[in-house]
Amino acid sequence: MQYEDLRPYHFGFSVGLHTQDFLIQHSGLQDAEGNRWYGNVPNYTPGFSVGVLGDLRISDAFSLRLTPCIHFGSKEMDLFSDAPDTKIERVTVRSNYIMMPLLVRYRGARSNNYRPYIATGFSVGIDAGNRKNEAIELTSLNTYWELAFGCDLYMPYFRLVPELKLCIGLDDIFQHHRPDEASQAFVNYTNAFDRISSRLIVLSFQFE
């Protein structure tokens, strides 16, 4: 594939794995009994990712890259108070992110059949897995800053591109005002957080 990098544009698809996480900021507010409530993500569960891609060549080193993808997954969250002998409630937050990243990619010089790169940009994400009447409710729309590292591996008939990407949510996705709150516990959880943002780590294999 000696002339592959001279093409003005090309397309492909990707499959991979990812993990989802929350970055939590607590409010420190007390409930009616004087207790404060907290939350954390105790462990990480792998999810599945699939997408398509289009790459527009700007120069030999730079390209503009559009990579729509869907991330199917979930994360567990522990909710507890600082009261003695508090009971930890573990809830599962399911999220199916439909994301539309637009990245600028810089590639180093090709060495034999290898060419490393770094890419960065922003994406818009929609959480299609949101459910109502849950202990933790999130908004559907979010924006992300993305940073990716990878390497083009030139095969006889296609390029295999392993990539590791970090997606950092820029918005507060926690639903602070909930008319559907079904119990006092829901009210305690809603008052416990000032901000929750989303993060993903994605390992993908792209075929171009």
Short characterization:
The protein is mainly beta and 208 residues long.
Task: Describe what you observe in this structure.
- There is one protein chain.
- The chain is mainly beta and about 210 residues long.
- It has a single domain, classed as Beta Barrel (Porin).
- It is about 5% helix and about 60% strand.
- It contains one helix and ten strands.
- It has one helix spanning about 185-190, and strands at about 10-25, 35-40, 45-55, 60-65, 70-80, 90-105, 115-125, 140-155, 160-170, 195-205.
- Strands 1, 2, 3, 4, 5, 6, 7, 8, 9 and 10 form a ten-stranded antiparallel beta sheet that branches.
- The termini are close together.
Corresponding CATH architecture: Beta Barrel
* Beta strand count: 10
Q: How many distinct helices?
A: 1
Helical content class: under 10%
Secondary-structure-based class equals mainly beta
- What name does the CATH topology carry? Porin
Give the domain tally.
1
Mean pLDDT: 88
Major sheet, described briefly? 10 strands, antiparallel
Shape: elongated
